[in-house]
Q: What sequence folds into this?
């Protein structure tokens, strides 16, 4: 197997992009990544697209050839793949692309993630997202995605003494980071009082515990590590990768305060990278809800079970603290275009490792991690990225 | 959605029919054809079993932002319930105020309307849970 490097990254602004269509955002992120990588369209061997539900959001399936077509690649007839894994589409697409290069099947591949969520109303969008839970045995009974994460939160509070204030600290930190990120959907800082006083969505979670619905795209370009220096002075190696699955329904999990899929994916990723949680300087973790980040930083091994809340409240996950978590603003403030999320995390970590993050730059960033989940944790993907000197 | 989608699930939704693994005795709901613990040994040995409908609340949420079809019911409570025998399911908690619901509370299944597919569509039914009238063992 060959080592694989990321040689280019690109993204769009995240938010309610009324004036841009799905194909326009997909192409904007793609062209930026190709330009950043120094490759030409003629060199692309394959395209992987992470997308959750274009069929429901914009009534368009078959989006992988669509993106290749509008990128001007139709005369080259390259193979295209669409990968769906709920919220983990982006990281799962990267995993498939990574395997295709590591195995020697392709040399240069483009991996894009895109979702256009605001062409439907908020209630309809929430119903589309609820299809990532078990439709027949959760959603039919009135369980929304927010309510399922709320049940994790309430049980976590019951078992470990986690507080609403500790959950709020996640949102406050991520908005602060988002205020420093030019592509973020929300660039305003918020206070704990604003989070605690927000309207309830699914108790104990309120509006400011939830990541928004967003439009956006993010793209990376991969090639074998030994070819990377031909294209860029700053390649980033995919040093570790782990992926795992679990029961679709939350109620069938061993423990609703832990995502076993995350625990196992992280173990595999650390094993392949020959690194440990204490080696990680920055992490982009899945924070579709505030509770998700607390569970993630515990399951990834950064903090002991039950200590995610107090650690966050004490500022140990803030920018340039013990570990810088969600420097981009996370799903909460950067935004949550579902299929793009996992790749937006990778784009942020690559920029951090290259030292391109300006006011939100992690000092001396060399090793970073991304953590992307699908549904309520039925899928989890962890990547560890490392600067190549 | 067509009627068969609801009709084919009626045994489990009306009568809490699950399966018991003939190899390890583990109860699953809804029915499974293979036991996640016993794998091949369980094939053909997953026996249908009727669950008691008594259980306790593992966790719950009060839903304020509801799907269109649940708009009239909000705020409502959904919970994860651990049934006697060990398996878990998700269901609404009814016949009490949301503020009365608590982790560890004893609940029992009752038969109710779950929803309808618009004005012309099928009305579908199944279990919801309410506070237990007699304490569970």
A:
């Amino acid at each position: 197997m060959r080592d694989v490097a990321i040689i280019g990254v690109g993204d769009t602004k995240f938010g309610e992009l009324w004036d841009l269509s799905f194909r326009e955002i997909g192409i904007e992120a793609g062209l930026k990544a190709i330009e950043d990588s120094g490759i030409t369209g003629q060199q692309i061997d394959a395209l992987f697209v992470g997308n959750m539900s274009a069929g429901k959001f914009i009534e368009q399936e078959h989006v992988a050839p669509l993106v290749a077509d509008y990128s001007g690649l139709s005369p080259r007839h390259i193979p295209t793949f669409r990968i769906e894994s709920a919220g983990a589409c982006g990281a799962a697409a990267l995993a498939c692309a990574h395997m295709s290069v590591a195995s020697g099947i392709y040399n240069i591949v483009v991996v894009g993630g895109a979702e256009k969520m605001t062409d439907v109303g908020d209630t309809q969008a929430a119903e589309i997202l609820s299809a990532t839970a078990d439709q027949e045995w959760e959603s039919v009974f009135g369980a929304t995605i927010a309510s399922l994460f709320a049940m994790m939160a309430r049980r976590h509070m019951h078992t470990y003494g986690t507080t609403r204030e500790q959950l709020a600290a996640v949102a406050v930190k991520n908005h602060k980071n988002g205020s420093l990120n030019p592509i973020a959907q929300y660039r305003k800082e918020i206070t704990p009082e604003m989070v605690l006083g927000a309207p309830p969505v699914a108790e104990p979670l309120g509006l400011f515990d939830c990541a928004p619905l967003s439009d956006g795209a993010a793209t990376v370009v991969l090639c074998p590590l030994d070819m990377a220096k031909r294209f860029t002075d700053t390649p980033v190696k995919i040093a570790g990768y782990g992926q795992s699955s679990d029961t679709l329904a939350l109620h069938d999990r061993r423990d609703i305060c832990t995502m076993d899929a995350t625990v196992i994916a992280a173990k595999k990723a650390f094993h392949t990278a020959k690194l440990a949680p204490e080696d990680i300087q920055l992490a982009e973790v899945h924070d579709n809800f505030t509770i998700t980040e607390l569970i993630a930083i515990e399951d990834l091994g950064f903090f002991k079970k039950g200590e995610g809340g107090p650690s966050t409240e004490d500022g140990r996950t803030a920018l340039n603290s013990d570990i810088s978590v969600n420097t981009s603003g996370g799903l909460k403030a950067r935004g949550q275009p579902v299929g793009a999320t996992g790749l937006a995390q990778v784009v942020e970590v690559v920029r951090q490792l290259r030292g391109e993050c300006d006011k939100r730059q992690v000092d001396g960033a060399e090793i970073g991690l991304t953590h992307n989940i699908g549904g309520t944790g039925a899928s989890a993907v962890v990547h560890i990225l490392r600067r190549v000197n | 959605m067509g009627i068969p989608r609801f009709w084919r699930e009626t045994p489990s939704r009306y009568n809490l029919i699950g399966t018991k693994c003939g190899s390890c005795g583990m109860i699953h709901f809804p029915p499974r054809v293979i036991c996640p613990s016993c794998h091949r040994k369980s094939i053909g040995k997953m026996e249908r079993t009727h669950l008691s409908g008594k259980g306790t609340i593992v966790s719950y949420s009060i839903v304020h932002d509801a799907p269109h079809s649940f708009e009239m019911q909000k705020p409502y409570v959904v919970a994860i319930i651990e049934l006697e025998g060990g398996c878990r399911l998700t269901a609404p908690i009814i016949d009490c105020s949301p503020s009365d619901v608590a982790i560890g509370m004893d609940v029992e299944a009752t038969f109710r309307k779950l929803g309808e597919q618009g004005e012309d569509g099928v009305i579908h039914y199944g279990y919801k849970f309410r506070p237990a009238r007699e304490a569970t063992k």
Q: What stands out?
A: The first strand of chain A starts at residue 4 and ends at 11. The domain at 122-210+238-387 of chain A is CATH 3.40.47.10 (Peroxisomal Thiolase; Chain A, domain 1). Residues 338-354 of chain A form the longest helix (17 residues).
